[in-house]
Every structure is written in structure tokens, then in C-alpha cells.
Design goal:
This is APC family permease. By secondary structure, the chain is mainly α. Helix content is 70%, strand content 1%. Strand 1 and strand 2 form a beta hairpin.
């Protein structure tokens, strides 16, 4: 640990864990390995089929502009993540960044967001696997399929990080090939010019196309932001990425850019290549119906099984992230000592936070037995809150001492300000839409629980809060002296 009297004795952050003691992860990932795991957690193919298809049904050609605008916003948020992660390249994702820039109280709130949303997202994904595997294996029970998938994914996430990079990378290759094929099908059967997509239109009650209003376009943007979400996952692996202070920004920005392109290009090609937009937008499963019309049932079955594999791949990647969140918080002392000691342990063989990863896997298994609508509402609005904290932290971070060699976003403070304005707009739209009140209420309750946890436990236990505050300040000392 560095001290004010001996700053030169501190080891560089690239070879240190944190100043609070605890386990140290293996710094063995290159930029490519980080990107592979991060993109696997995003799962562009499943986003195109599931979220993109839902967007077609609701917003029609508004998906074109909506997803482009969402892509710009996502890249602005990615710039915020990049600067924050470069200054604090430690495991823990949003929690680590927010706690070290905005303080332990907002950090506790963001920790609660991740603690609840990450395992529940795993449960949501797992419950959908049977829908896609069912085209090849009849009679699969969604619940027990989800339980088996989560158990296998959690076990895989306990392997060493390089093994996970290879496993997720192999799945990701298949997933991206499916997206390339989908794009190819649209390009070779173009039915309309690109200009037909410039005027946002969606299905009306009569089954025809009608202009999409501003509110509908904003909702399409919101769907796009949710679809692209996950590039911030690169931060969870910062402590395992070589020369992270200089490379983590590159891994994160590449992940965000590839995600945007990997989703908007096939979605656009589908709209250009569909026989009629009315049939596409009116289908129960728009992307699947386009695929089936262009390839037939046999090839369509293969692609849908590929999507099932993509979902499993995403579950593995998110399980990796979830374990690192719990590990980082335990190592910081953000929970009772008895829990912290167990959850901050690192396997001597794999250099992985096995106890924390298994714990989050168990929470995900429990989530499978929660009604699906409750799962969706419990995770629906947490993303906007998380992005809000990240953008605010990026706006504040330059008040801290500068760190030699760290990434500095261009045009600061424009990216975090624009991101905050976009997130604020999303909140306003959500408040005006009664259908989103439950989701917003649950998310607000999670945030409130985090602040309450800080007030009741962390603030009242000097040992715990000392670890958080000392770690934040000593991190900066180490970074400045590195």
C-alpha cells in the first residue's frame, strides 16, 4: 500500500490489486480477449433477433433513426466509461468507478443495481434459451433448461480468464457469422431504396404504415440503447487486462463501435430486403419471419440454434461480470467482514473469484423461479440509472488529480453532458408513460436501498467505510506514482 511518506514505493496498479488487501486477479488478457468476452456479454445476434424484432413491431422504420441516434448516445457513454476505466482500472465495473469518483454512498447504490440486475438478467436470458433450442429439440421445459444453462455457465465462468476468452470467442465467431449471413440475405434481395427508411413510419391499427411521432422515435432510441448495452462490461475485466490504464479505453471503445455496427447493419438490411414492410412489421417474430422467407426451414433452424448458443455465451460473460462485481465489493469491505473474507478469495489455481461467481450464479438460479414479468420490471429501468451515474462521474472525474498515461476523452465535457441530457429525456418519457411506472419504481427502490445501506451500515461501521474511502484515495496515489 502506498503512503503519503513513501509514494515511490507503491507498485504500479497494473501489478497490484487494491490497497485494501484481498485477492488479486491474473493480468493475462490482451485487448482482444477483453473485447471477445465483452461482445459475448452484449450478444449482438440475440439483440437483433429479440430486441430488434420487438422494435420493428413497435416502431417500424423508426428503428433506422432510433438505433442510429442510440448508437451516437452509446458511443458518448462509452467515452465516459473509457476515461473513468483508464483512471481506475480495477475489477467491479460501474460500482468501482462510481465509488471512487462520486464516493461510497453513490457507489453503494450502484452496487445494489448490479447485485440485483446482473443475476436477474442472467435468469431472463436463460429462460429464453428453450424458445430457440426448441426448434431442434422438442419438448424442452423453459424453467429446467434455464437452471441447467445457468449451472453450466457458472461452472464455466470459474475457469481461468484466458479459457473463458477462448470459449466465448468461439461462440461469438458463430454468432457474428449468423449476423453476416442475415445481412447478406437482405443485401442480395433489396426491395426498396435507403431513402424509404428516412421517414419514420410504423404500423397503424389498420395494418398500414403511418408516420411515427416524436414520442415513438424517442422510445425507439431507448430500445436501441438497451440493445447496445454491455460495452461497459469491459471495465469488469480491467484488472485482468494487460497495461490496462493504456489499453482498457481501446477495448471498451472497440466493443461499443463493433456492437453498434453489428446490430444496425443487419437491421437495416432486413428492412431493405423484406418483401413488404407491412408484412415484416406485422409478423409475430419479424426477424425470424424474414429469415424463414429467404432461406426455408432447414437453414432457419440452424440460425435459431445459433441464437440459442449466443444467449448461452452471453450468460457466461455476464456470470463473469457478476462474480467480479461481488468480489470487488467484498474486497473493498463494502459488506460484513465474515462475507467479505469469503467472497474476496481468489482460487490459487485459476486466479478467479470462484466464491463470488458461484454466489451470483445461485442468485440467478433463484431468479428463474420469479415470474417473468417481475424479472423484466426489476431490470427494465436500471440501465438508465447506471448510465446516469457514469455520465455524472465522467463530468466530475477531472476534479481529481490527473493520471499520467490515462485516456482523456475528446471534447470533454460535451460527451457526459449530452449523455445526461439524453438519459434525462428517457426518464421524462418513462414518467409520462404509465406502463413504465412499475419498472421505474422498482429501480428507484433499488437505488434508495443502496443509499440506505450506506447510511445504516457503511457509515455506521468505521472499519468498512474506511476501506472504501482509503482505497479510493490510495488508488490515486498509486496511479500518480506509477
Amino acid at each position: 500500500m502506498s503512503t503519503p511518506n513513501h509514494p515511490a514505493s507503491a507498485p504500479p496498479l497494473d501489478t497490484a490489486a487494491t490497497t485494501t488487501g484481498g485477492g488479486q486477479l491474473s493480468r493475462s488478457l490482451g485487448v482482444g480477449g477483453n473485447v471477445l468476452i465483452t461482445l459475448s456479454g452484449i450478444s449482438p445476434a440475440s439483440s437483433v433477433f429479440i430486441l430488434g424484432g420487438a422494435a420493428f413491431a413497435g416502431y417500424g422504420t423508426g428503428v433506422f433513426w432510433g438505433f442510429i441516434i442510440a448508437g451516437v448516445i452509446s458511443l458518448l457513454v462509452a467515452l465516459c466509461y473509457a476515461e473513468l476505466g483508464s483512471r481506475h482500472p480495477l475489477a467491479g465495473g460501474d460500482y468501482t468507478l462510481v465509488s471512487r469518483v462520486l464516493g461510497p454512498a453513490p457507489g453503494a447504490a450502484v452496487f445494489f443495481i448490479g447485485l440485483i440486475s446482473l443475476p436477474l438478467i442472467v435468469a431472463i436470458f436463460a429462460l429464453g434459451v428453450a424458445d430457440y433450442l426448441g426448434v431442434a429439440i422438442a419438448g424442452l421445459d423453459p424453467l429446467w433448461t434455464a437452471v441447467i444453462v445457468i449451472a453450466l455457465a457458472t461452472a464455466t465462468a470459474c475457469f481461468n480468464i484466458r479459457t473463458n476468452a477462448w470459449v466465448t470467442g468461439a461462440f461469438l465467431f458463430i454468432e457474428m457469422a449468423a449476423l453476416a449471413y442475415l445481412t447478406f440475405l437482405g443485401v442480395i434481395h433489396i426491395e426498396r431504396p435507403l431513402t424509404d427508411l428516412l421517414n419514420p413510419q410504423a404500423l397503424n391499427d389498420a395494418g398500414g404504415l403511418a408516420p411515427l411521432g416524436i414520442a415513438g422515435l424517442v422510445l425507439a432510441v431507448t430500445q436501441g440503447i438497451f440493445s447496445y448495452n454491455g460495452y461497459g462490461g469491459a471495465i469488469y475485466f480491467a484488472e485482468e487486462t494487460k497495461d490496462a490504464r493504456r489499453t482498457i479505453a481501446r477495448a471498451l471503445l472497440w466493443s461499443a463501435l463493433i456492437t453498434v455496427l453489428a446490430e444496425i447493419i443487419p437491421l437495416t438490411s432486413i428492412m431493405l430486403g423484406a418483401d413488404t414492410l407491412e408484412e415484416l412489421f406485422g409478423a409475430d417474430l419479424p426477424v425470424e419471419s424474414f429469415l424463414s422467407a429467404r432461406t426455408g426451414d432447414a437453414v432457419s433452424t440452424v440460425i435459431l440454434v445459433t441464437i440459442a448458443l449466443a444467449i448461452v455465451n452471453a450468460i457466461i460473460a455476464i456470470a463473469l461480470q457478476a462474480g467480479r462485481l461481488l468480489f470487488a465489493a467484498a474486497r473493498d469491505g463494502a459488506m460484513p467482514p465474515a462475507l467479505s473474507r469469503r467472497l474476496s478469495r481468489i482460487s490459487s489455481r485459476t486466479r478467479m473469484p470462484v466464491a463470488a461467481t458461484i454466489t451470483m450464479g445461485v442468485i440467478a438460479l433463484i431468479g428463474c423461479f420469479i415470474p417473468f414479468d417481475v424479472l423484466l420490471n426489476a431490470t427494465g429501468s436500471t440501465l438508465a440509472f447506471s448510465y446516469g451515474f457514469i455520465a455524472l462521474a465522467a463530468l466530475i472525474v477531472r476534479r481529481q488529480p490527473s493520471v499520467t498515461g490515462s485516456y482523456r476523452m475528446p471534447l470533454w465535457p460535451v460527451p457526459p453532458v449530452v449523455a445526461l441530457l439524453a438519459i434525462g429525456t428517457i426518464f421524462v418519457i418513462g414518467i409520462l408513460d404509465p406502463a413504465q411506472w412499475l419498472s421505474l419504481g422498482i429501480s428507484t427502490g433499488i437505488i434508495a436501498a443502496g443509499f440506505l445501506y450506506y447510511a445504516v451500515y457503511l457509515r455506521a461501521n468505521p472499519g468498512a467505510i474506511h476501506l472504501l474511502e482509503a482505497d479510493a484515495s490510495d488508488d490515486l496515489s498509486e496511479e500518480c506514482s506509477a
